[in-house]
Structures are given as C-alpha cells and as structure tokens.
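Complex record, two chains
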Amino acid sequence: MGADDTKLEDLVRWREGLVSGEIFVDPGIHRQETERVFPRAWNYLVHESQLRQPGDFVTTFIGADPVLVARQRDGSIAAMLNSCRHRGMAVCRADAGHSRAFTCPFHGWTYDEAGRLINVPNLENGYRGQLDTGAWGLTPVPRVEGYKGLVFATFSPDAPSLVDYLGEMAWYLDCLLDRREGGTEVTGGVHKIRMHGNWKLIAEQFAGDNYHAGITHASAASALAPVTADPAGATDPISADPVPTGRAMRFTTAMARPGRQFSHRQGHGVAGFFTSDKALTGGLRQMARDQAVVADYYEATDVEVTNRLGAERAKGPSGTAGLVFPTFIYLAGVFGASTIGVAHPVGPEHFELWRWCLVDAAAPPEVKAAMVRCHAVWPLGLADADDGENWSAVQAALQGPMARRQLFNYQMGMGLAGPDPVYPGTVSPEPIGEEPQRAFYRRWLEYMTSPDSWPEVVAD
Amino acid sequence: MSATLDALALRLSIEEFLYLEAELLDDHRYDDWLALLADDIHYWAPTQANRLRRDRGREASAPGEVALFDDDKTTLGWRVRQMGVVTHWAEDPPSRTRHLVSNIRIAPGEAAGEYAVRSNFLCYRNRLRDEVDLWAGERHDVLRRVGEDGGTDGPGWLIARRAITLDQNVVLSKNLSVFF
C-alpha cells in the first residue's frame, strides 16, 4: 500500500484521537514526508555558538537532504545542499570544521563557504570557457533564520517567519534560551545515535509524551533516586517488587501532581511540566557531586532567572521536554543538564538522534563541566537505555499488515485543552495527556495533503 | 632471564584479570564488575567526529566536552543499579553479550604499582529474536596492583582509569547499556 491509494485522512483521524500504524512504516508515506514535510517546515540546523568564525561549518540534514551550513564573511549563516551541481556528490564529508573551500572529490568542482562555484578543473579546454560558473553554485536553502541562538531553515517561500512559526512556543523556549544575560552556547562534542524506529515516534514523544516517563524510565528513576528514609521507598514504584538497593522514585505518583502541557497549531508541543517545580531537580542535590554543583548553580541564578522569565516561567516549563515541529527536540533542566537535538529520519524504519549539551554562556566553567557529565549520564545513558527499546519494539511489531493497520489510541485528555490564566497558548490542565500529539498529527496531515505549497493554518 | 619471567608473570596476571572482567560482564555480574573498579576511577569514552584531513587528531571529543561515557564510580553505580531493577525493560529479557579482549600491551604506569595497559575489544550483543550489535574499539587502562604480592583474596588488580575509543561516529546501537 502506498500513499496514493490510501486516504491519509483515514490514517490520521486526529479529531477522534486515532492514528494508524501505517504512517510509521509505509515507504510511500515516508517518501511523501521527505517531499512535503521537511523541505517546507522550519528545520533546526545549528546553534550559533558552533559557528564562531567565517568559514566555520557543520554538515547536517533537512529531512533526507544533506545540508552544509557555514558562517559567512558578513557574519550571517548560510545553508546549502551538500551536493555538487555536477554529479551530486557530497562536497563536504566532515561533521564540522573550518574551511573556505569545499572541493568535490569526484571531478574537483570547488565551492566557497557561500556555495559559489570558484574552481572548475579544465574549465578552458573542457568547457571552452563557456560554463557560467555563476549559475552553478551549490543549491541554497533560501531562508535561514535564528531565534536566540537556534538557527533554522526552510526551502519554502510561503512559510511565515521563524518567529511567527514558533508563536507562543517561543515563550516556552525562553526557559531554555533566555535564562541569563549572554544567552546560551553548546559545549563541544555531540551525541549521535541511530535508533530503530520511525522519526515520528520520537517527535511525538518530545511534543507530548510525559506519560511514558513514569513507566519507561522507572528503572532510571530508581537508580538515580537518593536513598529515602521511608521504608516503603524500598519497593519499585511500578511493580511493587523490592528494589535491590532500597532506592525508589515514584514517577507515576509524580505524574498526578499539578501540571500542564502546551500544544501549538504548528505542531509544536511542550510535553508536560509540574507547575510548582523549579526544574526536574527532585533530589538533584543528593544524587552526586556534579548534580549538586548544578543544583547550587540553579539556586545561585534563581533571582536573575526569575527576573528575566517571571516567577511562573522560572518554575514549571523550565523543567520539561519539548518539540519544535518537525524534529527539533529539547530537554530543559532534566537531571542536571539541558539538551537540544534533532531527530533526522533515516528512511521509515530508523532515525538518527543528534544531541548537544546546552549551557548558559555566563555559567562558570566548572558548572558547564558538571552539566556535560550529567548530559552523558542522562539522556544518553539511563534514559536511552529504555527509550531505544520502546521505539525498536514498536517498529518491529508494525511489520505485519494486521498490526500496522491498527488504529492506536491518542485520546488522553481530549477536550480538556484551552486557554490558561498563566501559560500562553493552548494548554492542557494536566502534566500528562495527548493534546500535543493530536496537534502534531493534525499539522503533519496538513503538510502531507497539501500538494503544492506550504499549508496555511486554518482557523478551527 | 628473571626479568623476562617477571614480565611474563605480569602479562599473565593482567591478561587473567581482563578476561575475568569480560566474564563478569558477559555473565551479568555487574556488582562484581563494579568491585573491580577503583573508587577514584574515571571511565571515559569520547565521541568520534569525522574531521577534515587537516584536523586529524581532533576526531575525539576533548576532556570536558560531551562524551559517550564520562563517569565516576557513583554514576557507574547508577548504571549498574539500573541493570538490576525489575523495570529495566531494555534488559528484560536479558541480552546475550560476549566481550572479546585482545592485543594487550603493557607499559609502566605513572605511579608505583600502576601499569598503562592498552587492549582492543570486540563486543557482540544479541537480543530478543534477531537484534545484533557489534562494537569494536580500544581501551587505555590504568591498572593498579592491590595486595602485597599482586593479589590476596581478590584478583589483585583494580581499574583506576579507562579511556575507551569506540570505533563509531554515529552510535549504531539503540542504546549503550553495555560496558566496554
């Protein structure tokens, strides 16, 4: 079955909270995504701090397309297809670096950091000097815009500006990006991991799935939690079996505390936060040395952060996961580190998760170092261990035709979202729910069923 | 001759220790494995970037930058503890692993009783019906002799430092819930 002979509206019945497994496995649907979703949406490229000097570059992807991103002589950032105009080979195969020239290994066509074709071997005798080099630069990604250090790009001439696209999501992103004067930077190094699973599984998880944390991450929570004096704490929060070390953390109980979710008509979401929490710092100070350093830092900067963001925003949404449609993900203040990342699709069956450690630029070096170490323990360590298992097990189960035709339940919290006196945008009144996932798939469907152009958001 | 015998005895002792370590990991005896690590251990695996030829030598993330592992004994203890929790779904049912250790090279360490030991590893993981992961790399260990004559009740060595080069750019397994 391909995208052509199935009505996508039958597979994504977001009004009813029903989504078919087909959209996670069908190659035709995936091919249509690479043509209709990624080139049109605002895709995350790079953090400005990774490109400090003209000629600094990184390579990445917009959906399935390889992209070269480079700092320009005028200080701007440009993006172009990492594909030679002669035969299509990638002109840069390093992850990052500094260069003023990118030479295609195939025939030697050479481009500068702006993508201009600056050298063609045998131009005189081969082309008799007739090649218009000005017309054969690397294909530009025409629109590149930034928001507080984050750089996004789109091929769409019709998409709104990045700031309009983000809408109220920017208010939530500021919890991550605007805590202190000087903004943020990413530390050196990046986690890249290939997951078995469709890219939408992680996208929807960061948009709205706070629900999974109580079960999926129960083992990580048990491992991390400080020793409790409560004898009842010696049982596992999920199974009630004894925990070997006498440690436990009640994630499922935590999910019943007051909290909110945010969903956005452009498909963005904030997965869920607890309104009274400063960050996901429950027991942070007691965990270990690095976590205590971060806890002290949060405390020391609390006044500044509160002055900049306001009391409500300095709590709640400062400790959560979120998604900017389609694939920019973040964790704000989770177990001692903040993480930004992107989930690149690799065919319908896999995605590649790239994650950087995001720190306040003004933080002292020892705090940044502690955050880097926290970032290695979570998410790559304790969290991925069980998340990766979920995604691969979903993907494996959906290989069968009967399994993938099932309509899955996305009905939690239907009809509950609306305006909130404190938090802007469409807000759900619990820390768990599936309004952001429904909004994500509603928006995905609009991209997928718009054949020619960027899909306008229509009013309800 | 005596010096040669001493070197051979040292090599045998270190090889036996590294094979014991592999056995404990493959037998899922993680608490016993943790006991082989010195209290001051730094267990570190930098990321491996693709770099331009002119940047050769800068592939690995630097100390202080993001790493795959950047652990002390406390955080390794968390990872071990997670392995033992009944809700650790990634190991339920348990994986099958086989650690192969080879190319052992021994040099004197910086402190008395310590040796700088390099080894190559190949780790195979087989999981559920047909999931296979294969990791290859090199370890730079500092092994510390414990006990007067190289061993009392224990294996005679502690791992005081381990730097792991994992020969992958993108980690190709769905997690790194494994020790190298």
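Note: Chain A touches chain B through 56 residues (CB under 8 Å).
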